[in-house]
Amino acid sequence: YLDCLWAQIQKLKKDRWQERHILRPYIAFDSVLCEALQHNLPPFTPPGHMPDAQYPIPRVIFRMFDYTDAPEGPVMPGSHSVERFVIEENLHCIIKTHWRERKTCAAQLLSYPGKNKIPLNYHIVEVIFGELFQLPLPSHLDVMYTTLLIELCKLQPGSLPQVLAQATEMLYMRLDTMNTTCIDRFINWFSHHLSNFQFRWSWDDWADCLTMDLEKPKPKFVKEVLEKSMRLSYHQRIVDIVPPTFSALIPAEPIFSFKYGEETGSSLPGYPVSITVSNAIKNRASNEEILTILREVPNPNQEDDDDEGESFNPLKIDVFLQTLLHLAAKSFSHSFSALGKFHEILKTLTESDDGKLHILKVVYEVWRNHPQMIAVLVDKMIRTQIVDCAAVANWLFSQDMAHEFTRLFTWEILHSTIRKMNKHVQKIQKELEESKDKLEKQQHKRRDSGDDEDMEKNSEEDEEGQLEEQIERLQEKVESAQSEQKNLFLVIFQRFIMLLTEHLVRCETGSVDISTPWYKNCIERLQQVFLMHHGTIQQYMGTLENLLFTAELDHHILAVYQQFCALQL
Amino acid sequence: MSAKLDALKSDSYIEISQYRDQHFKGNRYEQEKLLKQSNTLYVGNLSFYTTEEQVHELFSKCGDVKRIVIGLDKVKKTACGFCFVEYYTRGDAENAMRFVNGTRLDDRIIRTDWDAGFKEGRQYGRGKSGGQ
């Protein structure tokens, strides 16, 4: 940003400060103004650097187009011209002012003064994508930009959609080098946009992705777009909208995979109990009755019939959860209701960390073709404390999930989990602050009340005592929550370091280039965790540096940490 | 001067509409108070085939969705074109009013409006034949 602006100012100086885009309404009043009292501007010294000065985070100017991309009509000002700066600033300003009302925002953008001198549609599209792809975060919700672009298409149906299509094509061409976080946003934007326009797109233009390895950025992008598009419509729709040549990229039909079905599962050890449990649930048996039935499930982990009772039995979890979720597979609501009804049983089964990990494994196994369902079930299970956040992190990084490591849903679940943890800590901190405020008010009231009856004084003291107890409890709760939060980040970063180190060592020993699509994804996902949650991570930098990001680490991994520190977010 | 500047902060998409639920148990004032604090949206003009999953995917773009209740025909107990979406925070619901209201879901332009809060029974259509 600064480099670009500096170049623009220097060019402006070379052009003898001539600039024609800033509105100059005062020119119309020149005759009056030149007669008025003139003032001298005092000299101005910018403040020097201070150790505790807070700077805005570094910004990159996002550019897609140059004058060759808009061949007809007015010429697009060059990237180092100050006109470009002025136009972009003004468009950003319009969005900042009117983002809450998309129709007004679109109308204001399209009536930009001086629009006849520039290819306005190109500037608008470039500025909007610039904000959408901004790192660490866009200025506004992703969905604001989607609906703004839709409004713009409505107002300029003969010209804007074409520019948008051109932009989409250009972004597609550059997927190989696009930052992973930006690819996520591109996927979400494009699928949501298409869903408003009957999914009409010239898919054949992208036939080049069909001959590539499916892990490469272009076919991966198309696959994720089709998956997201399916979530906003339905499977058959997706089959209908793409050419038959794209069948390898079409998502799987989002149906339940039941292990204990009659045809395929009747020989499995858990099958008989699965039938019994299924009937018990249908007949509204009590939790005790179901737990009794489940005791019949043999434990593959135990050699002898150790009648310990509730030690970790993966098969028990498997049989119960598969059966329950199968009965509830009809919709999200059915599944949530099932989790709620049998909450007690689930909590018993997942008391241990092994249990928590295994329940996640089973949820994945049954719903592996419906990642959206997996995400909402994991969310519910965290909120109802059937699993904890660290268990989810460990599960996503586990060997069992390695083949899904580069899929978008994996990272959506991880970031959602981190956000829940953060919100939980914030909530308790807020409760603590509120209680402290309440106590302070009580104490002031007591001091100001003077000579009251003894009885009133006693009840006030009781109240204060209760508040002090509450504050102590909340203090403990906050410390416990923060400890859990710190542990979550430690787990996540530790897992990243393990995976990346393994990859780097393997490549080094085999004298193979480290830059595989997997590596690019993984290292950028590590960056993404830092950037998306920088506010929270700041508190734990000391621990991270002492325990994980030490000098012994491979420099590729350490570089990510050091770059993050250098941003001074 | 300040009236002009107010236009810069205009946020008309989140205002409560003229609609008031005739079956609401309470007076107009109470209803309006609930509407102004509500985290729940009524969503109309859904296709009869629109699923909870589709609604969840779209409305999740504005924040974490707490609950979705699909509106049902009172007689047939099948989906009849509306639903309720409840968020954990009002801010997320406001964003849905700004960015989802008037856009398409399952090819239809859907409409969102503030709702005083879901209560058991309100998921049933009140039309003569049992639909909306």
Automatic annotation (TrEMBL), chain A:
Region called Disordered, residue ranges: 434-469
Protein name in UniProt: Nuclear cap-binding protein subunit 1
Species in which this protein is naturally found: Ameca splendens
Pfam families to which the protein is assigned, alphabetical: MIF4G_like, MIF4G_like_2
MIF4G-like type domain span: 101-243, 258-537
Biased composition (Acidic residues): 450-469
Gene3D superfamilies named in the record: 1.25.40.180
UniProtKB/TrEMBL annotation, chain B:
Source species, domain of life: Eukaryota
InterPro entries referenced in this protein's UniProt entry, alphabetically: NCBP2 (IPR027157), NCBP2_RRM (IPR034148), Nucleotide-bd_a/b_plait_sf (IPR012677), RBD_domain_sf (IPR035979), RRM_dom (IPR000504)
CDD domains, alphabetized: RRM_NCBP2
Membrane-spanning residues: none
Compartment(s) of residence: Nucleus
Residues covered by the RRM domain: 39-117
Keyword set, alphabetical order: mRNA processing, mRNA splicing, mRNA transport, Nonsense-mediated mRNA decay, Nucleus, RNA-binding, RNA-mediated gene silencing, Transport
Keyword Phosphoprotein in record: no
SMART domains found in the cross-reference section: RRM
The keyword Nucleus is assigned to this record: yes
Subunit structure: Component of the nuclear cap-binding complex (CBC), a heterodimer composed of ncbp1/cbp80 and ncbp2/cbp20 that interacts with m7GpppG-capped RNA.
Family: Belongs to the RRM NCBP2 family.
Reported function: Component of the cap-binding complex (CBC), which binds co-transcriptionally to the 5' cap of pre-mRNAs and is involved in various processes such as pre-mRNA splicing, translation regulation, nonsense-mediated mRNA decay, RNA-mediated gene silencing (RNAi) by microRNAs (miRNAs) and mRNA export. The CBC complex is involved in mRNA export from the nucleus, leading to the recruitment of the mRNA export machinery to the 5' end of mRNA and to mRNA export in a 5' to 3' direction through the nuclear pore.
Name of the featured protein: Nuclear cap-binding protein subunit 2
Originating organism: Ameca splendens
Gene for this chain: NCBP2
